[in-house]
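**User:** Once you have settled down, spend some time on the protein underneath, comparing sequence with structure tokens, and judge whether sequence predicts the tokens.
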Amino acid sequence: MILLDAGPSDWVLFFGHFHPVLVHLPIGMLVLAFIMYFFSKEQNEGLRQKSVSTIFLWASLFAFISCAMGYALSQTGEYDEDTLFFHQWLGVATGVISAMLSYMAKFWSDEKTMMKLFKPALWVSLILITITGHLGGNLTHGSDYLTAYLPQPIRGWVGMEARAEATEGGNIIPKIDNIQQALVYQQLVQPVLKQKCWSCHNAEKQKGKLRMDTPEFLMAGGEDGAIIKAGMPLESEMIKRLLMDASEEHHMPPKGKTPMTEDEIFVLQWWVQHGADFKKKVVAMPADAKIKTILAKYASGSSSSEPYLSPVFKMSISEADEDDLASLRKLGLLVHPAAKDQAFIEVNAVNAHGLADKELSELSSIQDQIVRLKLGQTQLTDNFMSQISDMPLLIQLDLDHTQVGDKGLTALENLKYLESVNLYATKVSDAGLMSLAKIKSLKRVYLWQSKVTEAGIAKLKKLRPGLLVDFGFKGKWPLEIDTVKVEEKTK
């Protein structure tokens, strides 16, 4: 009979996860004792001596309890062994010296030797707790957690490379001067993984026994096997977890972490789809219109975020029913909050391309909360458009690769806040542009590979000055983008 190592029990891991909660108690107590000893008045010597002794006693007790729970947490095997070794034993040393300081404080007036040793021992305890805490930070947040956001002037003085600029949402959009010659992994994929994944999957900490900070470890995978299947993005565990609903337990990044943007996920899918190669340049990778648009943002170093806040987000609305949200998620739809601490909702059908009008009709249960609706590549037809017209707060609508045509667009004319419509690869023709021209709030429309002609675009120019129309790519890729933008006429 072969006995398999079952790993640590659930009880061990349960108590281990209390380590971060309790570990701050001895730290605070040691600092408090330090302050009381050096800054309290000497005429209250008796009270100071008793108080400091008691604080050190409790500090040592909680230090040892924290050490025990830290040991239980270490059984997950997710942490770098060398860093963990020093963190553990310095923590034990802090507990020991705290107990010694408690005894010395209690009897320092009776023993001159103790009085001479007390101050040096107190300083040693502070040094120990500082180093131990720093190593704990390395294990939890990565070895660069102190310098990750070091301001640029100082980074230059100490010889550190400059940080990529962040957008309003905190997402990194590095400016790449020659996008065609950019290395896809090093310049597009790795910066995203570094910002969103490395804090839990690095040399010091390996959640799920997974490291992502080098190509070799990334492809090796974790305890559940490989996370990337070259050529099969939707079968790759990394992509599947990124596309999970945020409410799912295994969604990545986990709650509390900055999620990846849709553009970032699309770039990762594109890289995996075409071989997950670590040496390929952009020019060697097939690129459709959508990926070209994303890459154009990297070429300019700008984000896709609107430079203003839609008036919709200044409203106060009721929350959607949780049962209704659960029903939609069962259909495969991703249903996310669209704003922090507000009831607005974004719906995305990226994992539910087979849905048709009948299934999508269930969106009526949350039509008053939807502000972004992404139904690209579904089986949606013109018949469903009347239901979309009943979504009063809709700001963004993506209908690319659907059966929508000119007839369906007439239903959108009365949407008061609609700003963006994606009609890439639809049946929309020049006739449909007349309906779009009537949407006063509309700021941009995407019409690649539709049935719209340049003559139709020219007519739209006259009707809607200022509207941004993305009509595809012509000429030398990727710099010559056939984007028509009509400046507002001077009054």
Summary: The chain is about 45% helix and 5% strand. The longest helix spans residues 45-74.
